[in-house]
Amino acid sequence: MPPTAKASILHRVTGVALFFALTFVIWAWSESLSSPEGFNFVKELMTSFVAKFIAWGTFAVLSYHIIGGIRHMIQDMGHWEELESGNASANIAIALWVIVAILGGVWIWS
Q1: Residue numbers belonging to the annotated binding site
Q2: pTM of the entire structure?
Q3: Which of 41, 69, 78, 90 would be 3's cystine partner, CB 3.0–4.6 Å?
């Protein structure tokens, strides 16, 4: 599969994943704002491995969706439409995402 197809499919998949991941984010935000006890509950919950993994996953899909979206907008302006530059921009977007996702994981688990 060409890099441009991988990047485009990954952008769509992360969009769908964001829809579902935001249910956790909205719930945690709502619960944390409901009362001091709710805030403490969410604060304690966020120390668990599962919650940190969900937070990292949400960060990872959001970061790729933003990176891929910026790439698509640049292409909509007429850039990176040739095969070589399109493949290069797709590979760069995916590589940048991997770096950002790893750094996000380090930040969340530190």
Answers
A1: 65
A2: 0.90
A3: 90
